[in-house]
Amino acid sequence: MIEFQKKVYNVVKCVPRGRIVTYGAVARAINKPQAVRAVGNALNKNLFKSVPCHRVIRSDGRVGGFARGTKEKIKLLRREGVKISGEKVEPPSILKNP
DNA sequence: CTAATGACCATTA
DNA sequence: ATAATGGCCATTA
């Protein structure tokens, strides 16, 4: 396990149910605001059930990618009460500063 | 070692 | 509103 992944997972692990954060927010939280893509790469390889990587979305409001498919990601979010229209999530759900 | 890749982002047209 | 562009960084080939 790489140090970078550890930091990313530790942050995402703390995102509660029904709450969502952006990739950029995670990047800032680990004090590497530029490493946005790298965060996505790290989450792509995540296996742990303890880290809810489906609650991480893009800054433009779209849900973004998911290892098991975007459709599945949307399902999981809906299951938590997050409203999604098409590929976008409703603004009130988005929190850029967790 | 270098080069390519990607669950991104902000800017520009 | 959409599309293209350049940049960023960790990982992988």
Commentary on this structure:
The chain is an alpha/beta fold and 98 residues long. It is 38% helix and 11% strand. The protein contains four helices and five strands. The protein has a three-stranded parallel sheet. A hairpin with a 2-residue loop joins strand 3 (84-85) and strand 4 (88-89). Helix 2 crosses helix 3 (36-44). The model has no long low-confidence stretch (mean pLDDT 92). The structure holds a DNA duplex (13 and 13 nucleotides).
Global geometry: globular
Main β-sheet, spatial strand arrangement: 2-1-5
DSSP summary, beta strand count? 5
> Helix and strand succession?
HEHHEHEEE
* Helical amount: 25-40%
Spatial separation of the terminal alpha carbons: 25 Å
Helix count, DSSP H or I runs of 4 or more residues: 4
Strand content: 5-15%
Oligomer: single chain
Radius of gyration, whole Å: 12 Å
Q: Spans of 5+ residues with little confidence (pLDDT < 50)?
A: none
Mean pLDDT, all residues: 92
Structural class comes to alpha/beta
Largest sheet: 3 strands, parallel
